[in-house]
Amino acid sequence: MAARLAVAFLAVSSAFLAVSGQKFNAIFSFGDSMSDTGNLCVNGPPAGLTLTEPPYGETFFGRATCRCSDGRLVVDFLAEKFGLPLLKPSKQGGADFKQGANMAIIGATTMDSGFFQSLGIADKIWNNGPLNTQIQWFQQLMPSICGSTQACKSYLSKSLFVLGEFGGNDYNAQIFGGYTPEQASGQSATIVDAIGKGVEQLISLGAMYVVVPGVLPVGCFPIYLTLYQTSNAGDYDQYGCLKRFNALSAQHNSLLQSKVWSLQSKYPGTRIMYADFYSHVYDMVKSPGSYGFSTNLMACCGAGGGKYNYQNSARCGMSGAYACSNPSSSLSWDGIHLTEAAYKKIADGWVSGAYCHPAISA
């Protein structure tokens, strides 16, 4: 199996050597809070949403922009690297989306509401923007972006699509709904299959370049470390992360990588790239100093509570919470999402191929 994947990787890389320094005409992004650039806030932020308050956005924008970070996200850095404007949220009325649009929305899941209803956890999903819906939003924009179906196939074949990450909120809903990581892992194949179908939908519309990120090592995130901390040292790995939750992410990613390679074989004229969110972030946790971080398991923005600086009752953006003096020295921004500094490093790794297989730029 490994040999076949290696051969497939080399074949894909060789086929696309000519696009070194690839200049895409647009970027189209789908996903959740790791990539939403404002869709949730277009019609006014929902009540209680803290990311519209300072210090969100302070590092780059100087104000909160509905991004879940102190500044730019991975998709912002990808746009900059390819000379494109920062992606506008697709729900922004009257915008020109010819150079890109962002369908991602905070809280998005891979699966539709029926999936969560069948598990008895529909109340854990508060946002109606799953993967299928986001693709429908994109299809509604297509006439204004590229015109006819045939014209769109040509235009979109020169665009970069970033599908995800998806899956994180599907697992969050299960965990917060009382399922164990082991029980949640029983749904991984279903979730990954749905992501694969999303990739195929985009290809049918004309996509040729599709980045498919895996999920993150949430067992290293302050929110999980706080809510599910135990007194059993055996529950943690040598870096202080909760092993059971990282095992769930790792299983998802293993299935997703296999799905990506299967799709690449099925659609040999495309470039389907697996972006390894997990390994890159975990490497930052293991060796923070190598990436310029002085803290790895503690949130930069919080109310100063507990070992990980995370409290549900005093989250970033709430009264009493404040940002650390130098966010660029932290991996975690608010205990749930990463800092701009981390996202920039991740974008670099995707473009170069250090953490994306094959690289976005061959």
From TrEMBL:
Gene3D superfamilies associated with the record: SGNH hydrolase
Domain of life of the native organism: Eukaryota
GO molecular function, one term: hydrolase activity, acting on ester bonds
Signal sequence annotation: 1-21
Keyword set, alphabetical order: Glycoprotein, Hydrolase, Signal
Database matches in InterPro entries: GDSL (IPR001087), SGNH_hydro_sf (IPR036514), SGNH_plant_lipase-like (IPR035669)
Family recorded in the similarity comment: Belongs to the 'GDSL' lipolytic enzyme family.
Protein name: Esterase
